[in-house]
Amino acid sequence: MSLERVVEVIERSGELPTIGGVATEVVRLAGDPSADFGKVAAAVENDPSLAAKVLRLANSPFYGLRGEVSSVERAVALLGMAQVRNIALSLSVIRDFSGSYGGETFRWDRFWEHSAGVAVIAETMIRLLKLPMSGTEYAAGLLHDVGKILLGHHFPQEFARCLDLAARRQASLREVEPEVFGTHHAELGGWIAERWGFPTPLREAIRYHHEPTDAGQQWVAAVVHLADLFAKVKQIGFGGDRVAVCFTDDPAWALLEGRRSHLGNLDLARFTLQLDQEVEMARALAKLGREP
Ligand SMILES: [Fe+2]
Ligand SMILES: [Fe+2]
Does residue 123 share a domain with residue 81? Predict the structure, then answer.
């Protein structure tokens, strides 16, 4: 097989996955400094089941606002637009993919725990390291492995073989997929990101999350790459990889060092402790997103 053949099968199936109005709006506004985030809130309110979930989460003990959040507008006022935007994006994307799409080949609940985990870790890393926000890092974290869902849905037997090969060889899916598909989930993810009209930094981060040095917009890919490693080290959810990783010695740190020279002095123990606190949030998002 090859990327072209995989894409042909997906396109012929007539089941090309779509992402909902809220997710599209969030992605479109990401990285636009003059964006009107009121539009995101309005899009959430137009989607009653999504609005109900956002309010449930906003009123959960995570935010210490139990019972105080009665509308999306109020949630924005109390939590801030960025927080509400991330919650809405996660819940909407996870819901869109959690129906019949995806199939039974994989533990998708753990997959979403991993993806939501990478999203919150990527954003927290940028905040703690005082790197410039691109606006796309959360979405990039959430969708970095979207190619796996496509492979799992359209090629259940072949994808199951990849999972098996990865388990037997103690390897990552990225390493074994080319043997079976002639391509891998990151390349396929880059293709769907283009089909969805995602902005370049987001597309590049999805395409190059395993090889951040090859990305044009290197540093979002580097952050997602490191967040992915951190999620694996901490066993946040499960994305199908069985490989041992080292978070602190990864070459992607060098890409960030070009942007922040003080990274060499970073207290990694403290840093990872702070990231740990975000992980529970990711678990709650993944669980709520999959509920009908
Ligand atoms: Fe991946
Ligand atoms: Fe991943």
Answer: no
Which of 58, 76, 100 is at the close of a domain?
100
Q: Say yes or no: 175 and 230 in one domain.
A: yes
What pTM value is reported for the model? 0.91
Label residue 99 by pLDDT band (50, 70, 90).
confident
CA dist., res. 28 & res. 199, Å (int): 7
- Cα(97)–Cα(93) distance, integer angstroms: 6
Residue 195 has pLDDT above 60, yes or no: yes
Ligand 1 centre to CA of 146 (Å) is 8
Q: In the predicted model, is pLDDT for residue 62 greater than 90?
A: no
What CA–CA distance (Å, rounded) separates 18 from 36?
24
In this prediction, residues 29-49 reach a mean pLDDT of 80
Tell me which ligand sits closest to the C-alpha of residue 184: 1
